[in-house]
Amino acid sequence: MDASLIYPQVDYNNYANYSPNKPVKLAVMASGNGSNFEVIAQAISAGKLNAEITVLIYNNRQAKAAMRAKNWGVKTVFINHRDYQIREELDQEIVNILQIHDVEIVVMAGWMRIVTQVLIDAFPRRIINIHPSLLPSFKGARAVEQALAAGVKITGCTVHLVSVEVDSGEILIQAAVPVFPNDSYESLHARIQVQEHRILPLAIDLLTKDK
Ligand code: GRF
What we know:
Blueprint: E1 5-6, E2 24-30, H1 35-45, E3 51-58, H2 64-71, E4 76-78, H3 87-100, E5 105-108, H4 117-122, E6 127-131, H5 143-150, E7 154-161, E8 171-178, H6 185-208
Parallel strand pairs: 2-3, 2-5, 3-4, 5-6
Antiparallel strand pairs: 1-8, 6-7, 7-8
Helix pairs in contact: 1-6
The structure holds 5-O-phosphono-beta-D-ribofuranosylamine (GRF).
C-alpha cells in the first residue's frame, strides 16, 4: 500500500449491508472550481466508484463546479445563502433538496459554509468534507497559507466526517505531501490537490462499503 495514505478507524469488514449492484446516491456541495467534483464524476464513469451524483448544490453563481456538473449531465441546484436569516434555515432547505433527490451520502468539496446540527442530524455519519491540511493542524479557512506561515515541512489533505465544530469530525483518510522552501500558495495547493483527487473517491468508496 502507498505509505502516504493513512486509513485510521475504517472497518474493512463491515460489508454486511453493502449491495454491490446498487450505486449509492451522492450529492456534492461546492462553492468554487470543482476539481474534486470532476474526479468523483470521473471515478464513477471509469467504474471505480459504484455511485451516481444525483445533484450538485452550489452557492456561488460563478462556481466552475456548476459548469462541470452540467457537462456531466448532473442536475444542479443553486442556493443563495444570503436569502436565509439564520444558518439553520439554510440547512433545512439543503436537507429538503437532498431528501428530494434521495441522497445517501453528502460530499462537501470546497463548500465554504459552516454547517449546523440540522444538516448533520439528517445524514448521521453520511456527510464528508475534504480539507487541505493534515487535520487537526490548520483548521478553518486558508489552511494552505497557515501551513506555509507555520513553516511545516509536511502538510497534506484530510477527508473527514462533518461535525458542527469546523474541520473536527472523525478522520477517514489522509495523504501527506512535502512542503518545499520555495513553495507558493499555488504550488503547494496544486501538490495537495493531486492527493485530494486520490483520497476523495477512495473515502466515498469506503463509506459506501460501511453502510
Ligand atoms: C480544496 O482544496 C478543498 O480541500 C477545499 O476547497 C478546495 C476545493 O477545490 N475544501 P475544488 O473546488 O474541488 O477544485
